[in-house]
Amino acid sequence: MSLNLDKYQEFATLLEQLRSDVTKTLLDAPTLRQRLAILQQWFVQQIVPLADVEYREQSYQTEMSKQLRLLEIDVMFFQGAKQSATAQARLATIEERLSTLIRYCHAILQPEEKGEK
Question: How far apart are alpha carbons 3 and 104 in whole angstroms?
Answer without folding.
Answer: 17
